[in-house]
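Q: Please design a sequence for this.
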């Protein structure tokens, strides 16, 4: 059996928490120690914060953090384009890519971070670099900016994910997509 890619271990942590959530986080932390030591401290902070929480408490925190706070919504296209036409184009291309890599969609929209991480695990290195550096890192960076105040456990998870991706892919904040998504990797 093939070991899950670190992105496949991170993806469920950005989904609505279930009964195995803390165990999934601990497994991700163990894997991260072997993958990217610089991303470990933030992930340790996340695991320590959620460890004593019940599933109900985790679900409430998740909802408050991502569903009720538009600054931290987990939809990459919304982070980059809001409700502009560019997001619609991005959604269509993401759906095509998910199908092309035989990745099942959840109840979330195709531009949700869980789908983006699953896709990153499947893309060829040059395609992953273009996708992560051109879109995912920009969205994560924008979300991180929303944590200047009212930081909670999920800020640490976002930070760990950002550090991991930034260590692997080129990222220039000035290159954020502004209007239409030019997605060479998603054509």
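A: Design:
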């Amino acid at each position: 059996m093939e070991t899950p890619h670190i992105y496949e271990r991170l993806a469920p942590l950005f989904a609505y928490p279930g009964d195995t959530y803390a165990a999934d986080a601990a497994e991700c932390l163990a894997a991260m120690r072997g993958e990217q030591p610089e991303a470990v401290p933030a992930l340790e902070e996340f695991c320590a914060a959620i460890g004593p929480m019940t599933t109900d408490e985790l679900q409430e925190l998740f909802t408050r953090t991502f569903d009720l706070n538009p600054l931290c919504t987990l939809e990459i296209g919304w982070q980059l384009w809001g409700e502009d036409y560019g997001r619609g184009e991005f959604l269509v291309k993401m759906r095509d890519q998910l199908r092309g890599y035989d990745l099942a969609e959840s109840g979330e929209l195709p531009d949700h971070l869980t789908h983006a991480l699953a896709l990153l695990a499947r893309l060829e290195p040059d395609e992953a670099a273009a996708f992560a550096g051109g879109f995912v890192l920009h969205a994560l960076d924008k979300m991180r900016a929303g944590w200047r105040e009212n930081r909670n456990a999920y800020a640490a998870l976002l930070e760990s994910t950002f550090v991991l991706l930034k260590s692997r892919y080129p990222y220039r904040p000035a290159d954020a997509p502004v209007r239409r998504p030019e997605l060479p990797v998603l054509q």
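Q: Thanks. Anything notable?
A: The CA atoms of residues 44 and 163 lie 13 Å apart. The two ends are 31 Å apart (CA to CA).
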